[in-house]
């Protein structure tokens, strides 16, 4: 099959932007709310636009990052669609997702204002480690990976793809060694929210992190993000890309037809198996992000980072609401919204249940059902899930029909 790289035009645009950057005409709404820092501190450039430092007019001591996306080439309808998509980012509340604090659609530009990373991006830290001549410890690798994995599972549950997952879009917050820092997923590739379909047709992103299905110009879904996550994990362990060449077509060919070199011997076989599972050529063979959270190695580091009980995963407000509704008539509804908000994550939850049902009988143990619920909805407590099963219709015994359980939950 012919290997095609659809985003060459985007790559050329990015190169042109890198050569010379001129701010687009500033508009009243954005300029009233935010002041650009002296000398226009450019934080990053990409195929979508330029990110620069700003300060809120009402609080000049604060510092944010604003992404300016030129939209003159888009129709009015497409501009509003892009703005609606950027507004969706403001609803994401997770410890490991860069917070979107403001959005503006003003004339020919879209502005997305975000919290500013205190320690730069993960690409910078990988480069710094490469210069030392030493590899990251497995603890550092898995601490970073588990946080990104948790963020990815969160957005996938909300039917959002990232579409440009790479170290340059993972941001570092905190002080000290990377092992001690928080990392946050950001700079979403304006990935389309899935409206009735799980397949996206347009292509964005960075070639070295593209999945085989993108390289072959096939429709792609959330498993494409999983491939990119695998490339990031490989790069964290080896400090090199699994597939690298001087020209884009050669990169695409390697991605589709070759296997990466094994990990260095200092890493456990368990980690090697995890990397291999993410870089399977067939998207159907890759694990879902929610299923990854159940991986024993990932679980170990989620526990160490506190993410298994992270109130930021679904927001402290929702956590309080769940606790308050524990003995009320709204308990079942609240539980359903936490496990799969507004039905948006039902397919992902079913897929996670199937991981624990290798026989395909549609039945799993009560312990496994509780484990899955706690994995996809970290705000829940063990007692909440047990209480849910106690009030469920016909959900008694040592094993539970998880299909029937979901039907009851969303009846």
Automatic annotation (TrEMBL):
Keywords: ATP-binding, Kinase, Nucleotide-binding, Serine/threonine-protein kinase, Transferase. Its EC number is 2.7.11.1. It is an enzyme of class 2 (transferase). It comes from the Eukaryota. Residues 37-298 form the Protein kinase domain. GO terms for molecular function: ATP binding; calcium ion binding; protein serine/threonine kinase activity. Transmembrane segments: none annotated. This is non-specific serine/threonine protein kinase. It comes from Pyrodinium bahamense.
